[in-house]
Design a protein that fits this description.
- The complex is a heterotrimer of chains A (267), B (277) and C (372).
- Helices cover 35% and strands 21% of the residues of chain A.
- Chain A has 267 residues and is an alpha/beta fold.
- The termini of chain A are far apart.
- Chain C is α/β, with parallel strands linked by helices.
- Chain C folds into two domains: 221 residues, Periplasmic binding protein-like II (D-Maltodextrin-Binding Protein, domain 2); 90 residues, D-Maltodextrin-Binding Protein, domain 2, CATH 3.40.190.10.
- Helix content of chain C is 41%, strand content 14%.
- In chain C, helix 3 packs across helix 11, helix 5 packs across helix 6 and helix 11 packs across helix 12.
- Classes of the chains: A alpha/beta (267), B mainly alpha (277), C alpha/beta (372).
- Chains in contact: A-B, A-C, B-C.
- Chains B and C meet through helix 1, helix 4, helix 6, helix 10 and helix 11 of B and helix 1 and helix 5 of C.
- Chain C: Keywords: Signal.
Chain lengths: 267, 277, 372
């Protein structure tokens, strides 16, 4: 249990009422050093979102250990050291953008290590002139940026992101990816990022963890040795394509390694 | 900054306090609202007059109804005020109790399991059976009538609020969970604002219903002879139909007023909700 | 498309303003509600008609509540109480009477008397005393003013005898009154051959021939039909030997035992008011009109009073005071209820009616009102 990484050992979780032979997560081992950007990718049912939720302290696990920088997920949450960006922006519609971003600093005031200035955060995501707008007046991309700014607000040790850009169109997605990287490099935190886009995983991460389904487990861990900061030249370069192919190949075998889902018609 | 997708076309928001008031005024008094209603009312008026002329003891002629209203406006105003007081106190008491009870029930399932069956029984009990017991307990004043009205307006608010307090999307709950927000914080910052659309939807139902409740209360609870409900009863018994329908007209006006009140309240409090977009 | 309002830095303030307004309004309403009903009347200048000791005893009983049979309708037993209060007769016997209007639910009223929330109430007839006790309410009848049934049956002029009603429709307002059912049975009408339906308050259903017979009160519907210039036949139960009553004053037996002077003097004041209102009907109806807050049809109520007090006089024998109780008549009336199934058995009538209070304040047939 060291304080400089996230350690997952032998993690198993079965959902109630599900097939015990096919747990959502089975014997998952994972190590994430502090300050890294790690993506989880895999076919549906591989447990990537479940793993994220366990690390967040939102779900219990059956066996195994989870240690986040020497602490349990629950203690991390109690210390307000975890930021979460869920799949939908999950903003409070009755608060304006600025109040949404500053919300975490007003909740559970006793914990936490101080908060960023909300106006600064909004400037960093390019929404400073929307500070007084309400979520229903924003586009999907703008809302997701607010959610990201909100997550960074408490200066989290760990940032968990669950397919935050999956509902956006391609160009918005790419723009937000680069913006996120810019934020991450300035604010410096550890990121665990769930995605189903190969391109996105390679663009963003230091490490891509490929998972397979039924039961959910780690299939392969791939390192992304693209230079940082990653600008447009890097992400359109040849090495990028090589890495993407490698990840795609891994995904293919992961797909085959998993048992067929019950709802698929056999080809 | 990279390019972003075009924002959905929305007109620029203007600063200044005039806009929302102007919008509400325009919507409440705009021609689009009043013209269809006026036409419908006129058609009803013609149908009414046709029946009233043929059968004067079924419906009074509209000029007669207008005549008693204009002839003794103070009588109708004072009785309308009496009924309105009971309606407002009743709905305040009933909705307020339902609100508090829903909060408690959402946090303590054991309370919900204990209270819900009682609430259902209370809802289906005819208030006429409860009225004498209420008079015995609370005397001959306003209290039994307020309680009857409160009982009638209690249940819809309770049900709606219970649902509303539980309808926070789980991603938002997850965010609050990772912040280790206390149950009280989740309740006050998340659940209560989320339940506001449901609460106001219930109030839309029970505000006009409170008028009906007050009238029923006047029918069944002894003590105090003022109120439009009493007027309807005594006038009906002596076949003075013009008073009956004049009182009904007053009740209708009160109902419309109550509904307008809630609509204005909704616009102000729920500006962020889909229902107001 | 709706425009959102300007967002103030603290939306909570915006919500507080309507909240403050609502709180203020509620406070005002509550204050009005608690401001109380009518202030008690100042004592009039009428001299006391009873001695000081008795006066003290009566005052010691505190506020005495009378709940009327139906609002402030000028019916016998209701109007006298209203007039007695207005004319100061209650003050003259040192009783502080509070008159509350009833909703017409006379069995509900007996429940209030039984619970002690009210002390006196008017019941529709003696049969209701039996029914109230059957329902577990603790009430006794202390005076019965009318000794004929108040219910009447109205038909069109084409009905020559009650048997003609077979195969037609009869309308009532909740249930077929026992005296009318007894009347039809006494005349040999097959009730199964008559379609019995519930109708509303509108008596014009009869002239419009929607029903061929209509139940009503002798003091009400006949006048309404006459106002409509409609002709009708009226069928009176007493013509067929059916016994009935109306205008019954009831009270709580134990409370009456503890406060006999109050009960006696209450009936004394009522009786005095009865005599007065016989001569001054319009004045007495005026007092009732003052109490009614939601409109009062003075003409109609004057007709009700006149019809009813004349029936009281005509149904009271010369050797009895108004309000006398004859248990033989009560028994006959009770049998009617048993016959049509509203009562299982006839109870013992002695404990349910107590004429001693009335007798105590009457000398021969006149009320004992010493100041005169």
């Amino acid at each position: 249990m060291s304080g400089d990484r996230i350690e997952v050992r032998g993690l198993t979780k079965t959902y109630e009422g599900a097939d015990p032979l096919r747990p959502a997560l089975q014997n998952v081992d994972l190590e994430i050093p502090r300050g890294r950007f790690v993506s989880l990718i895999g076919p549906s049912g591989c447990g990537k979102s479940t793993l994220l939720r366990v690390v967040a302290g939102l779900e219990e696990h059956d066996t195994g250990t989870v240690s986040v920088f020497g602490s349990t997920p629950q203690n991390m949450a109690a210390a307000k050291a975890v930021g979460l960006v869920p799949q939908t922006p999950a903003l409070l519609p009755w608060l304006n953008v600025r109040r949404n971003v500053s919300l975490p600093s007003r909740v559970n005031r006793r914990a936490g290590r101080g908060s960023e200035d909300p106006d600064l955060l909004l400037r960093m995501v390019g929404l400073d002139d929307s500070a007084r707008k309400y979520p229903h007046e924003l586009s999907g991309g703008m809302r997701q940026r607010v959610a990201i700014a909100r997550a960074f607000g408490i200066r989290p040790d760990l940032l968990l992101m669950d397919e935050p850009f999956s509902a956006l169109d391609e160009f918005t997605r790419e723009a937000l990816q680069l913006q996120l990287l810019g934020l991450w490099e300035r604010m410096s935190t550890t990121v665990l990022f769930v995605t189903h886009s190969v391109r996105e995983a390679v663009t963003l991460s230091d490490t891509v963890v490929v998972m397979s389904a039924r039961p959910g487990r780690v299939h392969e861990v791939l390192h992304v040795d693209l230079p940082r900061p990653r600008d447009r030249d890097v992400v359109t370069g040849p090495h990028m394509h090589v890495l993407e192919d490698r990840v795609r190949a891994s995904l293919q075998t992961a797909w085959e390694a998993g048992a067929a889902p019950d709802d698929l018609i056999p080809l | 900054m990279a390019t972003e997708t075009p924002v959905r076309p929305r007109p620029d928001r203007e600063e200044g306090p005039g806009r929302p008031a102007a919008r509400v005024r325009r919507d409440l008094f705009g021609v689009g609202l009043w013209l269809p209603a006026t036409v419908a009312v006129l058609i009803c008026g013609f149908a009414w007059t046709a029946v009233a002329e043929d059968q004067p003891y079924l419906l009074p002629l509209l000029p007669e109804v207008g005549g008693v209203l204009v002839g003794d406006p103070l009588l109708f105003l004072s009785n309308a005020w009496s009924t309105l007081q009971i309606a407002l106190l009743g709905v305040g008491f009933g909705a307020g109790t339902a609100f508090v009870l829903a909060l408690v029930m959402s946090e303590a399932p054991v309370v919900r399991r204990a209270i819900m069956p009682l609430a259902v029984v209370l809802n289906v009990t005819p208030v006429v059976a409860l009225a004498p017991a209420l008079v015995v307990a609370f005397g001959f004043g306003m209290a039994p009538k307020v309680i009857v009205t409160a009982i009638i307006t209690f249940f819809p608010v309770l049900i709606n609020m219970t649902t509303g307090l539980r309808s926070v999307p789980s991603p938002v709950l997850h965010v609050f969970s990772t912040l280790h927000a206390s149950r009280l914080e989740v309740l006050l910052r998340l659940r209560v604002p989320s339940s506001l659309p449901y609460a106001l939807a219930a109030l839309r139902v029970v505000f006009p219903l409170s008028i009906v409740g007050a009238v029923v209360a006047e029918f069944v609870a002894a003590g105090s002879s003022s109120g439009l409900g009493t007027m309807i009863r005594t006038s009906a018994a002596t076949a003075r139909l013009e008073y009956v329908y004049a009182a009904i007209a007053c009740l209708a006006a009160m109902g419309v007023l109550m509904l307008a009140l809630i609509t204005v309240l909704e616009r102000r409090l729920l500006f962020w909700h889909e229902s107001q977009q | 498309m709706a425009l959102p309002p300007v967002s103030l830095p603290r939306p909570r303030i915006r919500r507080i303003r309507p909240l403050a307004a609502a709180t203020l309004t509620s406070a005002v309403l509550l204050a009005t509600a608690c401001a109380g009903e009518d202030a008690s009347e100042e004592p009039t200048g009428v001299a006391s008609v009873i001695d000081d000791e008795r006066c003290e005893t009566n005052r010691a009983a505190g506020t005495v509540t009378y709940i009327t049979g139906y609002q402030y309708q000028a019916s016998v037993s209701i109007l006298e109480a209203v007039a007695a209060d207005a004319l100061g007769f209650f003050d003259a016997v040192c009783i502080d009477v509070e008159i509350q209007p009833g909703t017409g639910d006379t069995i509900g009223n007996s429940q209030l008397v039984s619970a002690g929330t009210a002390h006196f109430t008017s019941l529709g007839n003696e049969a209701e005393v039996l029914q109230a006790n059957d329902a577990g309410h603790d009430v006794i009848g202390i005076s019965t003013y009318g000794h004929v049934p108040i219910a009447t049956l109205l038909t069109g002029t084409d009905i020559a005898e009650l048997g003609d009603l077979e195969g037609t429709t009869l309308g009532h307002k909740g249930m077929l009154p026992a005296p009318l059912e007894a009347m039809l049975v006494a005349d040999g009408v097959d009730l199964d051959a008559v379609e019995i339906v519930e109708v509303g308050y509108d008596p014009s259903v009869l002239p419009r021939d929607q029903v061929q017979a209509l139940t009503g009160f002798r003091s009400n519907e006949p006048f309404l039909l006459a106002d409509m210039d409609e002709e009708y036949n009226e069928w009176l139960p007493e013509d067929y030997g059916v016994v009935g009553s109306f205008g019954v004053m009831a009270t709580h037996p134990e409370w009456a035992e503890e406060n006999p002077t109050v009960v006696e003097d209450y009936l004394r004041a009522i009786a005095q008011a009865f005599s007065y209102c016989q001569e001054n009907g319009e004045e007495c109806v005026g007092y009732a009109a003052e109490l009614a807050e939601s409109g009062y049809d003075v003409d109609h109520n004057l007709r009700v009073w006149n019809a009813e007090h004349e029936l009281v006089t005509s149904s009271t024998p010369d050797d009895a005071p108004p309000g006398y109780i004859d248990l033989n008549l009560t028994e006959a009336e009770g049998e009617t209820l048993v016959d049509n199934g509203q009562l299982d058995t006839l109870p013992d009538l002695e404990p349910l009616f107590d004429p001693r209070y009335l007798e105590a304040v009457h000398v021969a047939t006149e009320v004992s009102w010493p100041a005169e």
